[in-house]
Amino acid sequence: MKKLGLIAFVLLMQTSFAQVNRFVYQVTMKPDASDKNDTKTENAYLDISPEKSLFYSENRIKRDSVMKATFQSGGARSFNREQMQGLRSNINYSIEKDKKSQKITFKDRIGRDVYTYEEDRPLNWKILSETTKIGDYKVQKAETDFGGRKWTAWFTTDLPYQDGPYKFGGLPGLIVKAEDDKGDYSFDLMKNYKIDDFPAMNQFGNTIKVKRGDYVKQQKKFMEDPMFFMTQGGQIRIGGEGGPRGGGGNPPADFRKRMEERVKDEAKKNSNPIELQ
């Protein structure tokens, strides 16, 4: 009986360790350089396991769920544009950190395809002696320069994860808060809980692996000529799978014009990116 009890205990411990810890951050952004009064706020998840972590928008999972339900119940005909509009996000990227290799992989959609690169810049933190308390956690201050911004982070050793939101990590504990000195971006830990596993994310279109510099160039090209990235051989491709319109045929000129105007308007609204260089 003792042996059976020990086996049950070991299995229980293995199950608990297999779980993923989810940390929910409130992300506050001022993405429009021409209107710093326009503040966007949404939640993002940092899911952490012993092997890796994944940072992404809460709305990403909600959108994926809606898309899955839509295609299961009749596809494009039952597509709810209004619902999808309500789940739009300023966090269209995802970031995976490999615990063993210490590699940080960034993924973002440009047009119909997903571009991915491995971060090539180290985070050089300066840990300061200043401490305070944020919520229930005693935190310590650290600073770094990254992506053209000066960042201040507050980390806690109460949570034994050398991780944090966005690309941040490598401090002696979990980052509870991070903000840039211009007040344009901030990440604030709101709560945490356990989930069974990492969510399965829908991915439409091709995945193109590039160097970070090439990704930046492709982003710039997309802003200048968005329709080039949204078409293939003259055929419209929305979301890499034809989207709710289906795929095929040459898109009408008015449709192309509307799409181009929408993309350029989105570019203006996102003219103050989190990374400036």
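[next item in queue]
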Amino acid sequence: MPAWFPTLSQHFMLGALALLVYVLSTRMRRERRPPHAAIAWVMGLALLPYLVLPLYLLFGQRKLRAAPKAAPVDVSADAHWAADLLGSFGVASPRPAQIRFHADGLQSRDALWECIEQARTDLDVCTFLIGDDTFGREVLERLTRQAQRGVRVRLLIDGFGSWLSSRRSLRALAGSGIQVVLFSPLFLGRWIGPRNLRNHRKMVIADGSRLWAGGRNLAAEYFTGRNGAPPWIDLSFDVTGEIAAVAGKQFQADWSAAQGKSAAPVHATPISVSGPLAQFLPSGPDQTEDTAQSLLIAACFRARHRLLAVTPYFLPDDGLRTAMRLAARRGVRLTLVLPAASNHRLTDFVRSRALRELAEAGAEILLLPAMVHAKAMVVDDTLALCGSINLDRRSLLLNYECAVVFYGEEQIAWLARWIEATASQGATFNGKPPGLMRDLAEGLLLAVAFEL
């Protein structure tokens, strides 16, 4: 046995120390983890403390601040239950807004160009990645032209996503007048939080009065297609009104956090418009509660007639999975739309366990032959949600995400029609029982691979 290998007593002492670190840090941070996540960390720390303890210290934290005592909520007779729930988390209240959905990539592209071109004083762009392709370069060219016209242009891109972008193009922006900040770069000396907490928010805000958002990254496959292939099926929208100023404040907070500073007031002038109510929903480590996760679970129990959902990746935690299954059990029409094969094949493999449970409960699961990247849910005729939030653990419990909650009848009906039309192109999921080896492989991956 090598001299550096720990003895049995040393192993037990290190394991006990690792478990003590886990207990104390969890108590001090008031971390709340699902049982499978807690069990995975505890088993790893006890059995392989010299390997798992550094991983836990680097990746184990998922909230960046302790939750304060919740402020009392003024519940009025005509208030929507979702607005009351989100208000209790400190989310800004619904605002009147003018809303346009983009049915395909070309409509979304045109709305994006319009949002960029109409900026007169400020243009804030937050994205996970910018494609190293013709479309990505055109985005940067348009941002550069706006900066040369005197518009303050700020680009916030995720530190991991930047490696999927053109690093040369991003470096070339240094002399263009565009301010560029990477959110939590992978290689950075100072500590700004665990490196596995990624910024997946997608929004463009012009002058604090117009918001372009949804599920699309700024790359060709989301708009026009890459190398002759059709574009991915995705959803985005633009909103005019005070909700854009709310999104601008969130951008400012993210911008400041990426620089290791406290948030400063955003330079934006909100405008009042008439229109249906909509609510900007941030979700992630910077929120004291799991805002989107809580809303979705509550929606499953509140639904009476239908739940329509579309997502590229389906790996919910036990709470959301149970809520969806029970909704289907009690007769709610649950329709779930997914790609038959996404761009993350490991996720496709392990999603089968949850899909089999839902299918057995009576849910309708449709698998599309094309890549679906849209993220949306419709609850009865009273609520809809669309944005960057996938129905998986990383998106709901780890990533910085954002969405807009729609309360207007016209917007809810539009999203419902879009999801149902998309679902009609899919084939029904075959929920046949797995073999022993597949069942074991699914369980192992669910317990370990998605906790980081």
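[queue empty]
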